[in-house]
Amino acid sequence: MRPVLEALFLCCILTFGISYPMRNGHGRDTGHLAHFEFYNGSEPTGAPNRCEDEEGFDAVTMDQNGVMNFFKENFLWKGGSSAAVFVNESYPEVGGQIDDAFRIKKKKAEEHDRIFLLKENKVWIYTNGQLEADCPKLIADVFPGVPDDLDAAVECHKETCQAESVIFFKDNDIFVYDSSTNKVKQKSWPKNSPIQFCTAALNWMERHYCFQGIDFYRFDPVTEEVAPGTYPKDARDYFIQCKGRHHGYEAAKNATLWSIKNRCNSRPYDDFTSDDNGRVYAFRTGWYFRLDIHRDGWHAWPLSHTWKGLHGVITTAFNWENKMYFIKDSLVYIYRSGQGYRLIEGYPKPLQEELGITSEGLDAVFTCPHSSQLYIIRGNKMRSLDLQLEQKTLSEETSIPHAHIDGAMCTAKGVFLFEAGNYYHYQDTNVLSTASEASTPHSIAKDFMACNN
What we know:
- By secondary structure, the protein is mainly β.
- Helix content is 9%, strand content 34%.
- A hairpin with a 2-residue loop joins strand 6 (114-119) and strand 7.
């Protein structure tokens, strides 16, 4: 059902234990304001101060370690606060300045990401930090139909685009290369779009960005529409950790907002769930985190950024047959997953009408892999119904060893119940419904959110 989610819990589960694959975070990561690192402006001779430079970058990409790389002339910055190094120190074969860069993610655990660096009519491909054989190659040979001397390039995965693709930009033209068919579709920016060219492009956490110098726009790679909000924005307020202007630091000054966005504290989550494409989510007070791509960093996003029309605190959420269901008070929102999420026409609808249940006293609902059973938890009671049946009929109540939970999720590795800062694991719903006492509590922050505190 959810291949990435199942991979998160790959190791064997013991009687009361579970493997903790999310524990390996980036460095000393506690999510605390005290560990927010700023760019200090100290640079090698000839490299510009990133917080003062108005020209922007030649290319931006994530690397194989999930670190954002910024290229400008002969210099490379790794991350938002580091000083520059020379491009040749990391990519000696390129010979300095590049035009474009992007990353193709690995498809299997035993594989490595591939980093593509483009310059004039050539492309250098790196795997696990090593240049692949026979590189550099001609762009025309690797991406037939794509022109030379490109302005920008960015990858687009099938969860967002119709297929695994690379999008190339040259002047006002857009070239979408389908990696499965080796075909290229050429189009242009819409005439009424504020974006008519890109000097660099980036895919970060399934969000696509077009840079124009130091400014950027977030855009939909399928429709080319600019995301809602005020654009352009200055990269120094978002991607570079400049003192006195970075939006993350400013958000941290708001105690209420920071308590929501600081994933490492003990504030409860509203729920955890995933979809059939392997996206894994933690929801908290109108915001959400992505767990399956934590290697590229952590960020809290408003629900409406991904699920248009959804705002505020949700009651609970679950996934079934490529659809994400959100229960919010007495309403249910259903979004079809695939190329992003699209609210199904006619929704939201009353919860009673759609599922035959009410939200009164509702703690959590969840589905398990390859099952149409929806499990409903209220206090210490659990019932179920079959989502495939037009006439929804609730099963008899069973007791669970919890008086209250905040959320629940079921994977191939069992059932996870979330309460305050802890989670509890059960092998399956039968074990949960027959347990006489709660299983051993474990830390959500440490095991799900990769916090080291």
